[in-house]
Amino acid sequence: MKRTEFPDPQRRRKNWQCLNGTWEFEIDNEKDGFSRGLLHHKLASKIEVPFSPECKLSGVQHTDFIRACWYRRTFTVPEQNRKGRIMLCFGAVDFEAKVYVNGTFVGGHRGGYTPFSFDITEWADREENEVVVYVEDDVSANLPSGKQSPRRESFGCFYTRTTGIWQSVYLEFTPEEYIRSFRFYPDAERGRVEIETLTVGKGKIRAEVFYDGRLVGQAEANEYFRNRLGIALSEKHLWEAGRGGLYDVRLIFGEDIVESYFGLRSAEYREGKFLLNGKSVFQRFALAQGYYPAGVYTPASVSEMEKDIDIATEFGFNGLRLHQKVFDPYFLYLCDKRGIMVWGEFPGWGVRYSDLEGLGEFLTEWREVLERDFNRPSIITWCPLNETWEDLDDSGKTRDVRFVDIVYDFTKKLDPTRPCIDVSGGYHGKNTDLFDYHDYGNIEGLTAVIEKLERENELYVDKLYAKGERRFYRDGEAVNLSEYGGMTIGDNVKTEITDCVQETNAWGYDTSPSEQVFTEKYIEMTRRIADCKKISGCCYTQLYDVEQEQNGLVTYDRRHKLSEENRKKIAECNRRKAAIED
């Protein structure tokens, strides 16, 4: 069995049970499984959870469309764990799941990227129990699907699809009265934290805060549904780029104990700069898409996630743009722990922005993302939308700017503690905390845009409702070049997005005949960006290849393309002090 670690260290209980491993499985493209009695009968094949049926690690590796599928397994609950509540938890299931325990429907969930759980105490009342999950998915249905290919094959910048269960499944055992959720509000300037708790039941709640094993603060209060505890910390340790410095937290409510952590830091864009704990820090990011050769969306192990962060660190990046996907919570924990700054993004591609029809579905799942990851210090910016251009299937349909404006306002309402970029790349709406743009031009084109920004204070993105209705940069706004580069190495590589099929006709936005030329180009572009006093950060495309998009610094299976000497040159360039940091 793989992925046996507790899925999310942000909220840990000792009493839990992993349900990953071998499940029964059956594809049901005709969606007639209920009429065929699949709810109560053995399924046709096996699958390894939590890997999607499209990937090698699942043991299925069916890469054609899967409109619907079924899962089944049995699990035992020892008598001592049947005295409180039994929660059945799913990390993520793409897209719509219906869950049955011992033949009874216990709940459903829509959304392919966010966790959900059901209290199954009433139905899991025996030692051996059965869970059945029915899933429907359709990447063409005006739903968030990110970079999942809407065709049978991968092409361009769309890759292998993910259907069904792709994050861990587990049981959590709680007392009758328990801690439902909590939020941390760190105050880096004053060295304190406020903890908002939500409980099922009433009683006394206690919070204990530790740093490196030492008790540095505590508080308690009577709890009924919701409370807020203020704790002054006896030791002040800031969460910084390259050094996590996490505080551990123990929350105690009656017999329920939850362990967590937070980072003491502030993050904002002000006067053209990104400020971490009040200090200007240049964002030296690489784009990471969260795809893996054997697991597609799901990394095989913690070490596989750690390797991605090791690669980013070796190249001198201080952060990652986690692109078009809600990443595994354990990956975010590793970023929290190691001081890797990230943008919290959403896989908004797949939604049509030309009208508001898909807005409700979008906001429902985006709210769940904000709730899941609110406490993560590594997330220094929310990025709900990316490149909301014309409809991919009909260039005559431009986006409705109200969609963008509503998503920005919604994000700021649910989390006023973080900056939010309304749209990365194009096109911005009326309000954003960061003026962000993409530039895959050569060094001459990239330089021309930067010089115009420096000399004339001019930068804009096209379109609000219609072509020519531009959104201009406003003096004092922070600017970020959040996609540039995208270079491949070699002569037999296309330099435009085409209909190329997975693993053939590799492409990039630009190409270099040798790794030496590649390294020189990288350094020249990155230095020009970092030397601009009006740019607060940049993000290179990309950290690793993904299927046919082979413009990463390393290959899809994370092997180095560059010599140690050239890797060191790039790292030195990335770590060089930027103009905006003086």
Low-confidence stretches: none
Cα-to-Cα separation, first versus last residue: 51 Å
C-alpha geometry: globular
Number of strands: 31
Major sheet summary line: 7 strands, parallel
Q: Tally the helices: what do you get?
A: 7
Percent of residues in beta strands? Answer: 25-35%
Mean pLDDT: 94
Spatial extent as radius of gyration: 24 Å
Strand order of the largest sheet: 24-23-22-21-31-28-25
- Structural class call reads alpha+beta
> Share of helix among residues?
10-25%
What do these coordinates show?
- Helix content is 16%, strand content 32%.
- The protein has 7 helices and 31 strands.
- The protein has helices at residues 302-314, 329-338, 359-373, 401-414, 443-456, 515-530, 564-575; strands at residues 16-18, 21-27, 45-49, 68-76, 85-90, 93-94, 96-101, 104-110, 116-119, 128-136, 164-165, 169-174, 178-187, 192-211, 214-232, 246-253, 256-263, 267-270, 273-276, 279-280, 283-288, 319-322, 341-345, 379-383, 435-439, 460-461, 471-472, 479-485, 487-489, 510-512, 537-541.
- A 7-stranded parallel β-sheet has the order 24-23-22-21-31-28-25, covered by helices on one side.
SSE topology:
Layout lengths: L15 E3 L2 E7 L17 E5 L18 E9 L8 E6 L2 E2 L1 E6 L2 E7 L5 E4 L8 E9 L27 E2 L3 E6 L3 E10 L4 E20 L2 E19 L13 E8 L2 E8 L3 E4 L2 E4 L2 E2 L2 E6 L13 H13 L4 E4 L6 H10 L2 E5 L13 H15 L5 E5 L17 H14 L20 E5 L3 H14 L3 E2 L9 E2 L6 E7 L1 E3 L20 E3 L2 H16 L6 E5 L22 H12 L7
Parallel strand pairs: 21-22, 21-31, 22-23, 23-24, 25-28, 28-31, 29-30
Antiparallel strand pairs: 1-12, 2-3, 2-4, 4-10, 5-9, 5-12, 6-11, 7-8, 7-10, 13-14, 14-15, 14-16, 16-17, 18-19, 19-20, 26-27
